[in-house]
Structures are given as structure tokens and as C-alpha cells.
UniProtKB/TrEMBL annotation:
Residues 1-10 have a biased composition (Basic residues). Gene3D superfamilies: Kelch-type beta propeller (2.120.10.80). InterPro entries: Kelch-typ_b-propeller (IPR015915), Kelch_domain_protein (IPR052588). This is Kelch domain-containing protein 4 isoform X1. Residues 11-24 have a biased composition (Basic and acidic residues). Residues 487-526 have a biased composition (Acidic residues). It holds the Pfam family Kelch_KLHDC2_KLHL20_DRC7. It comes from Phyllostomus discolor (pale spear-nosed bat). The gene is KLHDC4. SUPFAM superfamilies: Kelch motif. Residues 1-33, 350-375, 402-431, 487-539 are annotated as: Disordered.
């Protein structure tokens, strides 16, 4: 009794500590989130001008990561929403919706009135009812300098049949977060984990929530047993037996002032609903056999045929107090819940050695070209060096060493497979993290992601396809284009002028930029032009001269019930955006 009581007391103490930390983080982040709310409101005002659905054939989307990539439940289409892009100085957030037609190999940009605000690191789940629905929860909005974050706790549904967005307002849901995971389980959406970060503090979660798709209500689950520690970016999937499996993920904790230590988790848990006891769940830790993935973060997950869970890539970090190094990966792993076993995915075809990319080295911008897929000899390592010149004139030296692989467990060969055929693919996605995966008709589609070349982040926009039944070769549908890369070195100035410009969306085609400029300048629909910026005028002088105009404009967009302080923030953000565009 004594030990049990002590254990329960310790558990309650941990819960109190977590509650205090969450309250502390919430209080400190409230101010910066209020600042970002004004900016988000400004962009929602622009989105509100759209009154009808517009579908425009377009080139493949610009480079991005941490978007959602989902298969349409009825059509041969993949749905890409949101994401982020970093160019060395600014972070760009998106709320665009793209449709990829698998059979036609074409992209369409779909503009729908009143979409969710710009975000990344959210979760999207497709369910078949009503002609197909895409449910989106949470995610984050970041200031262009990456120093401030706004974490969403909103829930949206895209009705695919009617192409309409709807925000579902229901109390009692999870707190604002990103990096969480969400899956469809029976007639519910199950949300696990994630994190919330402010400029100075952060907190990771291991709570579980369920959203009922029939009653549109949230409930917090309290599973029995010992579950995963708080984490984000983990694998969460539903097993054929109806349980929910949680694997890996990432978390960090403060070891001393201004020093954090990250943990790449490699444990696995099973969340099971107790039979005959509705609403009762239990955690169980499991230890699968087979060729387990190495510990990593930033990996991507999809559900393969036969309900196997597929894991791709990521980055294996080696953290020191003052530095972060590691390897980016492009390997495939499958988890079979029926056998409770991991298998390494082997591609049949011409032999190509397993590849990694070093994260960051003292030698400078070294990495691997995202278009490079050279054959390697099994007898000796092969070093390939390239220089890539991006559109902004930056020269990146690319070096890749392909080494002989070590022994690893492989799935058994089929009857029609010869040992000569069981090798690697001659074409494959380069090592990366935070890519987007979707599976349709037993084919895996992989889009975008990122890797690092020295101090530079390379964000990708390539698209690959792999037949998961044949496992014979990767097919390149969209090649990575180095000319789409823009990299700006960091500057000493940290001006607020980046705020509106950076979050606007940024790296889009010129036509989209011109359309946005037309909207912002009020030239469409006969609206008057915004007050012009005189040559050499400073923003403070411009704002003093035109503030009343922007306040009236913000008031019109926000409505009569909006608070004066909020209207003023939106007005200043709009003025800053126009001033920067004019400059």
C-alpha cells in the first residue's frame, strides 16, 4: 500500500508540474500570440474577398515542408494543403490548396472562400462520408524571423463534394499545438501529443483527445496504464485489430539556462479501447521484432496496403550543447502490426547503395544535390561532387559519398524474385526530413521536404512515386529544380517590416503575386488606390500621414464588433505590408 500510494502521489505531482508549466508557457506566449493574431486577421481579411471557387491549372507547387498531403477517398487525386518555406531570412506560411490528378499528371490550384488561416505542422485526415471530407486540426503560424509562434486549436473540414470550407466550433478540445498526430478511428478523430512553443518556453504533450464525427463534440481520454512520455512528430496509426500504435517522436527539455537537450524517441506503445467498456482506453508498451528504424526525428508516415505502416526518411541528430549535427535519411521501413514486426523496405532493380546526408559540418555548405541519383560500385566508395548555382546567384558545393552498406535484415524474396533483382533503385528521393506522403491505389507518393547543406536549408518541391506491391523502382514525376531555390544570408537588422511580407505566402509564381498586389492596391472592383508612398519617406512618417485611412479599411474588414485595439493592430499591419511592397 505504501509503495502504491507513493507512486500515485508522484503521478499527481507530475501532473501538477505539467499544469504549472503549461500555464507559464501560456502566459508568456499570450503577448506574442496577440501580435500575430493581428497579422493573421489581416490575411483573413484578404481571403474573405474571395466569394467563389476558382480552379486554375498550374505548375507544381513551390518548395515547402510540413504541409499535409492526402488521398481523395473517391477520386484519383491527392490534396496538398498549407506548409512552410524558409529562405534564410524569412519564413513563409501557406494556406493554398492544390489538387494533383494522378491519371492526368496535372496540378490545379483551388481557391475556396473562407479557408483556414496560413499554417504548417498541422494534421489532416480524410474520411469518406458526404462525398469525402478533409478534416484539419491545429498547426502553427510563425513570424517571418522565426522568433514568434501562434499555435492553432481550431478544427476545419473541407467538404470535397461541394468544395466548401467549414470551421467547426466545439468546446473542450485540445489546446493550441503543432507537431501533434491525428488519425480516424471508427467514427472519431483521435489526437495525440504535439508541442506549444513561445519565444522563451515550450511544452510537449502526451494527452489524447477524441472528436466524434456524429455529434461534433470533443472528449479528453484518460487511458489506464503507462503511456508515452510527452512528444511531437511521432508515428500514430490504426492497426487492423482496431488499436492505435504510437512510435518514436521528438521532445526536448531544458538542462540549464538557455541550453536544451533533445530526445529522439524509439519506443512503441499500443492504445486500445477496452471491449464492452465504451470510452475506456488502456496504454500498453510493446517491443516489436525485426529490422527497427534507427532513432530519428522528422520522419514521414503513411498507411501502406494490408494496413502496414510505412516510415520514410527523417534526420538522426547528434546534439552537443553548442551544436547540432546529424544524418538525413531516405530509407523505408514497414511496421506490420499483425506480426508486431519491423521490415526494412528493399527496392528491386539495379543496385544502389544506402544513402545518408550529413546535416551540418564545419567545412561549410556541403550536402547532396536533390537531383543526383548516381550508381555506386559495391566494391569501393564513390564520391560525387557538384556545384549548383541557384537563381539568386548562391553557389552551393554538393558532395555525396556512396559507401558499401552493412548487413541488414531484408524481407524474404517472392517466388518470382531472383537474388540479382533484390537490390536498390537506380533512381530514388534524396535524403530528407519533413516530407509529405500519401498512398493511393497501393502507390506511395512523396512530395517535398528539406535537408541542410552546411548552414543552408534546401527546401524541395520534387514528387516521386513507388509501387508498393512491386517495389521495383521509384518514378520521378516532378524533378527538383535548383533554380526554385532562394537563399538569403542572415542580416543584422531585425525589422518588423518583415512581418506582413513574410507570412503572405511569398515564393509563388509571378501571376499570383500580381493578383495579390492588385487586391492589396484596391485596383480591382473599382476600389480606390491605397495612399502612395512618397520617395524617401520613412514608415513612421507614412503611417502618421495615412493611419486614419488604414483604420477605416481595417474596421470595414473586421466588422463593427471588433475591439479598437485589434483594429488598430490590423491597420498597422496592412499599412506596413503596403509600405514594404511599395519600397
Amino acid at each position: 500500500m505504501g509503495k502504491k500510494g507513493k507512486k500515485e502521489k508522484k503521478g499527481r505531482g507530475a501532473e501538477k508540474t505539467a499544469a504549472k508549466m503549461e500555464k507559464k508557457v501560456s502566459k508568456r506566449s499570450r503577448k506574442e500570440e496577440e501580435d500575430l493574431e493581428a497579422l493573421i486577421a489581416h490575411f483573413q481579411t484578404l481571403d474573405a474577398r474571395k466569394t467563389q471557387v476558382v480552379e486554375t491549372p498550374c505548375p507544381p507547387p513551390s518548395p515547402r515542408l510540413n504541409a499535409s498531403f492526402s488521398a481523395h477517398p473517391e477520386k484519383d487525386e491527392l490534396i496538398l494543403f498549407g506548409g512552410e518555406y524558409f529562405n534564410g531570412q524569412k519564413t513563409f506560411l501557406y494556406n493554398e490548396l492544390y489538387i494533383y490528378n494522378i491519371r492526368k499528371d496535372t496540378w490545379t490550384k483551388v481557391e475556396i472562400p473562407n479557408p483556414p488561416p496560413r499554417r504548417c505542422a498541422h494534421q489532416a485526415v480524410v474520411v469518406p462520408q458526404g462525398g469525402g471530407q478533409l478534416w484539419i486540426f491545429g498547426g502553427e503560424f510563425a513570424s517571418p524571423d522565426g522568433e514568434q509562434f501562434y499555435h492553432y486549436k481550431d478544427l476545419w473540414v473541407l467538404h470535397l463534394a461541394t468544395k466548401t470550407w467549414e470551421q467547426v466550433r466545439s468546446p473542450g478540445g485540445p489546446s493550441g499545438r503543432s507537431g501533434h498526430r491525428m488519425v480516424a478511428w471508427k467514427r472519431q478523430l483521435i489526437v495525440f501529443g504535439g508541442f506549444h512553443e513561445s519565444a522563451r518556453d515550450y511544452i510537449y504533450y502526451n494527452d489524447v483527445y477524441a472528436f466524434n464525427l456524429d455529434t461534433f463534440t470533443w472528449s479528453k481520454l484518460s487511458p489506464a496504464g503507462t503511456g508515452p512520455t510527452p512528444r511531437s512528430g511521432c508515428q500514430v496509426s490504426v492497426t487492423p485489430q482496431g488499436s492505435i500504435v504510437v512510435y518514436g517522436g521528438y521532445s526536448k527539455q531544458r538542462v540549464k539556462k538557455d541550453v536544451d537537450k533533445g530526445t529522439q524517441h524509439s519506443d512503441m506503445f499500443l492504445l486500445k479501447s477496452e471491449e464492452g467498456r465504451e470510452g475506456r482506453w488502456v496504454w500498453t508498451r510493446i517491443n516489436p521484432s525485426g529490422a527497427k528504424p534507427t532513432p530519428r526525428s522528422g520522419f514521414s508516415v503513411a498507411v501502406a496496403p494490408n494496413h502496414q505502416t510505412l516510415l520514410f526518411g527523417g534526420v538522426c541528430d547528434e546534439e552537443e550543447e553548442e551544436s547540432l549535427e546529424g544524418d538525413f535519411l531516405n530509407d523505408l521501413h514497414f511496421y506490420d502490426a499483425t506480426k508486431n514486426r519491423w521490415f526494412e523496405g528493399q527496392i528491386k532493380g539495379p543496385k544502389l547503395e544506402k544513402r545518408k546526408r550529413r546535416r551540418a559540418t564545419k567545412a561549410g555548405p556541403e550536402g547532396a544535390d536533390q537531383q543526383e541519383c548516381a550508381e555506386a560500385s559495391a566494391q569501393a566508395p564513390l564520391e560525387v561532387v557538384r556545384e549548383v548555382v541557384s537563381e539568386d546567384g548562391t553557389v552551393v558545393t554538393i558532395k555525396q559519398v556512396l559507401a558499401a552498406p552493412g548487413p541488414s535484415e531484408q524481407p524474404q524474396l517472392g517466388e518470382d524474385d531472383s537474388p540479382e533483382e533484390a537490390g536498390g533503385s537506380s533512381v530514388e528521393p534524396c535524403p530528407r526530413s519533413n516530407a509529405m506522403l500519401a498512398v493511393k491505389h497501393s502507390r506511395l507518393y512523396l512530395y517535398g521536404g528539406m535537408f541542410e547543406a552546411g548552414s543552408r536549408q534546401v527546401t524541395l518541391s520534387d514528387l516521386y512515386c513507388l509501387d508498393l506491391h512491386k517495389m521495383d523502382e521509384w518514378t520521378v514525376l516532378v524533378e527538383a529544380d535548383p533554380d526554385t531555390q532562394e537563399w538569403l544570408e542572415e542580416t543584422d537588422s531585425d525589422e518588423d517590416s518583415d512581418a506582413a511580407e513574410g507570412a503572405e505566402g511569398g515564393e509563388e509564381d509571378e501571376a499570383d503575386e500580381e493578383d495579390e498586389e492588385d487586391e492589396d492596391s484596391g485596383e480591382e472592383d473599382g476600389e480606390p488606390q491605397h495612399p502612395l508612398v512618397t520617395p524617401g519617406e520613412q514608415f513612421a512618417d507614412y503611417l502618421s500621414r495615412t493611419e486614419q485611412y488604414w483604420v477605416r479599411l481595417a474596421q470595414d474588414g473586421a466588422g463593427p464588433e471588433a475591439k479598437e485595439k485589434r483594429v488598430l493592430k490590423v491597420a498597422h499591419a496592412m499599412a506596413r505590408a503596403f509600405f514594404d511592397d511599395s519600397a
